[in-house]
Each structure stands twice: as C-alpha cells, then as structure tokens.
Amino acid sequence: MNQIQSINYPIYFNSVTTHLNNFINEGKYSRFFILTDEHTSTHCLPYIREKLNNRDDFDLIEINAGEESKTIDFCIGIWKMLIDFDADRSSLLINLGGGVVTDLGGFAASTFKRGIDFIHIPTTLLSQVDASVGGKTGIDIDNLKNIIGTFTQPKAVFIEHAFLSTLPARQVKSGMAEMLKHGLIADASYWNVLKISDLENPTDQLIYQSVVIKNKVVTEDPSERGIRKILNFGHTIGHALESYSLDNDSNPLTHGEAIAAGMICEAYLSHLKAGLPAGDMQEIVDTLLGVYGKYPIHESCYTALNAIMKKDKKNQGGKINCSLLTKIGECRIDNICTDDELCDSLKYYASLQYAQV
Amino acid sequence: MNQIQSINYPIYFNSVTTHLNNFINEGKYSRFFILTDEHTSTHCLPYIREKLNNRDDFDLIEINAGEESKTIDFCIGIWKMLIDFDADRSSLLINLGGGVVTDLGGFAASTFKRGIDFIHIPTTLLSQVDASVGGKTGIDIDNLKNIIGTFTQPKAVFIEHAFLSTLPARQVKSGMAEMLKHGLIADASYWNVLKISDLENPTDQLIYQSVVIKNKVVTEDPSERGIRKILNFGHTIGHALESYSLDNDSNPLTHGEAIAAGMICEAYLSHLKAGLPAGDMQEIVDTLLGVYGKYPIHESCYTALNAIMKKDKKNQGGKINCSLLTKIGECRIDNICTDDELCDSLKYYASLQYAQV
C-alpha cells in the first residue's frame, strides 16, 4: 500500500523521504524548482525541506493561495520566473500545494520550452485524491474552470498523509466529496464504508482506495474520450455552482461543497433519466446534505447557472452532457440534458428541507 | 508526389480541393473555425472558400499580421473567441497563414479545453517547408522565440503552391533559407541543386524535397531529444539576431535573413569545432551572402546577443548548445560553445566583405 503505477509514472504513499530523494538525485535533472503558495510555503515546505536533508540548491516560486491564482496571469508569472532563473529543458518543477498549485504548475511546466518534467506533491485531501492524479493541467479564464490546459502526465506523485493535519476541517470535507463520488460512480461497497466514516479524518486506507479508483479510470482513458467522463458526475452543475459562487459570494463554496450540491442535482437527473432507483437517490441526498448542508440557490440565478453550463467542456454540439448514475456504484456517460431538466434539478435541490451551509 | 505520411497525419500537396473537403465532411467535427491574419484573409481565404464550394458554416478569427502577434495576449484573444463562439471539444481549428498563424493557432488549439484538433494550411514558403511540419506550436515572451509551446501534431497539413504567388520576393527568400539549411544538414546533392536554382521561384519538386527531409527528421524524433536538433543549425545565433533585430531595427530581419546570417556564423563554428572543411565553409558563406547580403552586426551588440543566446531552449546546464556541420550534408548535435567562440563567430561575420542587406 505504498505505491501505485499510473499511466507512465508512480504514485507514492508516505514515502517521500526515500523516493523523492532518489528521484531528484538520479541525475536526470540539471536543476529543480519548487512551486508553492503562501500557505504551503509556511506549512508544508519545511516538512519537504527536512525530508530533503535541508538541501537548498533549488529556487522557490510562490503564488498567492486560492482559485483566484489559477489564471493565465499567474501562469505568465511562473514562466517569467523560470526564464529569469535560466530554467532549461532538463529542469524539474515540483508542485507543492493543492489543486490550484498542481493544475497551474502542471500547465506552466507542460508548456515551458514545450514541456519540462514536473511532479506533484499534493497537500490537500482534494488534490491528493483528485487533481494530482490523471494528468490534467489547467487554468481558468473568466471563471470558466480549466477551460485552458493540457493532458500531460507528471513524472511522479507523492501523497503524504502528514499534510492533512495542516488543513482546516472544511478543506478536508471538500476533498471528501470527491472520495464519496468515487464510491458513487464505481464502488458501492467503498461508498458504504465511507458514508459512515469520520469524514474529517480519512484514514490512509480510504485515501489509498480513492486514488486506486481514480487511477484505474484515468489509466483506461487518459484523454477523456469515454469512460473517464464518469469522473464528471456532479460536476456539470457543481462547476457551475462553484463558478457562480466564486463570482457572487463573499465566502464562496469550496469545490467539494459545490460538487456535493451538484451530485444531489445530478442524482435527481440520474433518477429521472438513467434509472437510479428512488431509494439510492434518497440515500445520496441524505448523506450529502448531512455532511455538506445546503447552499441557497435562488430561482433568480438559474439563467446564470445555465449559461455557465453551456460552456462546459463535456458539451457536444451545443448540448449539455452529463454523467449520471444508473445505481450507486455505476455511472453512465453522455446523457444529454435539456435546459428544463437541469432547471428542474436545481428546483428539486432548492425544495429540499435542510440547514443551510 | 502529392502526399507524405508524417508522425500520425498526412501532408497533402496541391490537393486541397479533394482532401480538405473530405476531411471536413467525414463527420468527425461539430464545427470548424479558420484562423487568419489580415493578409491571408485577403489573399488566401478566397482561394480556400472557393475550394470549399463557398460554404460559410464556419467562424473566422483574424489576428494582426507579423511576429508581434505571436504573444500570449493574442493567444488569449483566440481562446476567448473560441469561448464566445461556443467551440466544443469536437471543434476543428484551421490555421491559414504563415508561421505566426500556424504556431500560435496550434498552441491555442492544443491548450483549448485541453486540446482540440487543428490542421495547417501554410501560406508562406517558410511555413510550408518548416513551421507547419513537425508538431511544434509556440508563442514568444519578451521576444524569446517559442519559449512557450507544446509538441502537438496537427491532424493534416495542406501545402498549396498557388499561395507562393501571393508573397513578396523577400518572403520567398526567407523560406528558402530553411530549404538551404535542409540541404546543408542532411542532403549535399539537394544543396547542390538548390544553390543554383531560381531562389525566388522554388519549384513544386524542390519544396516537396525539403518537406521530405524535414519530415524524416521530425518523425524520427518528435520531441527533440536527439537527432531533431540538427534542424537548429544556424538557429542559436540566428534566433538571437532575429530577436535583437525585432527589438532594435525599424525594418527588422526576416526569419530567413536572420537564419542565413546565423548559418554563416555557425559554419565558422563548425569549421572551428566540428571539422567542417574550409572549402565547404567558404561555399556556404559565398552562397548565403550572395542571396541574403550582409546584416551589420556592431561590436556593441555582442553582449546583448550573447544574453539572448543564454536563454536558448537547446541550452543545458547554462551552457550554449549548437548544432554544427561536419561537412555539407551532415550535422552533429550537442556542441557546447563558449561565449568567446560565439563572439568570434560574430566577429568573423562582421569581417566579411559584402554588400549590406
């Protein structure tokens, strides 16, 4: 349980001391750079420095924390720092942070001098079980999430349980939403274990199982032509809610909170269109509302949400395309949903009686 | 002589009518977009429209002509237009233009929604024999040429001799520099034919041969780990001259003029370091100066040129790395050149007695 093989790179668990040192020292790289944000500089870099025996022969690139940094402007900033540091094609970029750092750093590296190697050391639960595995890099434009990016695999991923203790509970729960999704789309027994677990303190074993599920899917379909789309369950509506909230709320939804709300809406659509049994739907709704509470979606914002969904990357020929559950543990891709159906799912969510987030 | 197979796509010669229509109509694409610049909109788009039976079910994206457009700002502009036009992952981008359009359009497409398909219809000799073949996409930052980009293969390339009649003689000669380079690095008999050809009116056959040479090299080594670097002969110094001239001259050097001067300097280095016979060096110098004249390089700009070379993508561990000729028709990669040697080659060029460009 300390290593998984992905497409063409290893995912290491809790073994940064041995394997990261081996990786850097094997002689393949002329230099290395570490990308952090202001939080991971403080809370995670000292841990990595210590594991690297306090060597200091690298340059540090730090960005602001938060989704607001996942822009082309910050990417240009990284490119220019790599230029200033005389990074060459044999340089290595180590992305130490959450999904913003790994997505942005991966994109910057995959395009710098037409591609330098990079590795991820994800420091949030969300990036450990989701962003760091599968080779998606990306930046946002005008709050359209990951609208620009590449499919480029890292050379290695290092998942360290130790970092989870640095996170606020809300961030851990955010990552947990993707883990719950992994159960819903691919493994009912995993879902059954998860839903009664301590969702603020996931064990090594649960994280490992989530990465195994995600890795299996992306390895089968690296560039999202087919089966990989099951990972988008909850994300058509969830991404729209996340973008909307980022633009309109002073304390925006986390990714996991948005995806949890999206999964509830899409469980409704799954029941409507893909045969998800009513009992399964109710179980999903109860579990997710129980963990994440409820986000107030007013009728006045349906049009704006629909407009965001129209820009979703999975759409084809102008039609909104969702991945829906046929039952807990099974997901079907390429379900075209009409504007009315999507609107109904939002109304369904709005009608649920629960405490607000 | 109307088709070559490249890495995983065809290069068609003078057969846009049949093959472009087939390509668009085979049902793979939801929509298509044509990227042009103000020149190709006027001089080349009507030709393509006619070949496409005047269909108008596409959107046009036009950029300003010239290297100044090969920036991240223009790339963002293309991304935003694709977003506004609701381009989806099944969209096709057709790049109709010279190297700026094909490099920039290729980069924009390869990163939009993590990559949509694109094809090139190169309209300059330079882009026909060089930029459009081999899957390099790129943009400049701070005049560092192609410092950002990807290796992404187009789905097809269409080379149409008809476009050459739309070009000023200086542009044709610019492309010819790359053809001459192909002879120098890989085929002495081709060089011997070329150097006595009408360099302002290259025949179909000569263009075809040049594409065959370039294609053979890039197919062997798509991501430039080894042999592909021979294509960089003349480009370490040539790119520096091109960047410098773009920043400092009211009428900057064309790419071909800069590369011709770069090839003379690097022929000198080849003689010094790689065994290029003196007679071969003299033949290269005489031929290139005869065609391109001489660019005045003052001693005062050696430092600036050296600083640009220090940023060259081929460098490793801070050392400037050139591809040099061992004789006409053969090239050796990975020759580390010192600052003094590079400076000497510029002095050698400056000492040559010829009319100025």
From TrEMBL, chains A, B:
Its cofactor is Co(2+); Zn(2+); NAD(+). Its main location: cytoplasm. Pathway: Metabolic intermediate biosynthesis; chorismate biosynthesis; chorismate from D-erythrose 4-phosphate and phosphoenolpyruvate: step 2/7. Its EC number is 4.2.3.4. It is found in: Cytoplasm. One of its GO terms (biological process) is chorismate biosynthetic process. It catalyses: 7-phospho-2-dehydro-3-deoxy-D-arabino-heptonate = 3-dehydroquinate + phosphate. It is an enzyme of class 4 (lyase). It comes from the Bacteria. Residues 175-315 form the 3-dehydroquinate synthase C-terminal domain. SUPFAM superfamilies: Dehydroquinate synthase-like (SSF56796). Keywords: Amino-acid biosynthesis, Aromatic amino acid biosynthesis, Cobalt, Cytoplasm, Lyase, Metal-binding, NAD, Nucleotide-binding, Zinc. InterPro entries: Dehydroquinate_synthase, DHQ_synth_AroB, DHQ_synth_fam, DHQS/DOIS_N, DHQS_C. Signal peptide: none annotated. GO terms for cellular component: cytoplasm. Residues 61-173 form the 3-dehydroquinate synthase N-terminal domain. One of its GO terms (molecular function) is nucleotide binding. NCBIfam families: aroB (TIGR01357). Belongs to the sugar phosphate cyclases superfamily. Dehydroquinate synthase family. Catalyzes the conversion of 3-deoxy-D-arabino-heptulosonate 7-phosphate (DAHP) to dehydroquinate (DHQ). This is 3-dehydroquinate synthase. It comes from Mucilaginibacter paludis DSM 18603. The lineage of its organism: Bacteria, Pseudomonadati, Bacteroidota, Sphingobacteriia, Sphingobacteriales.
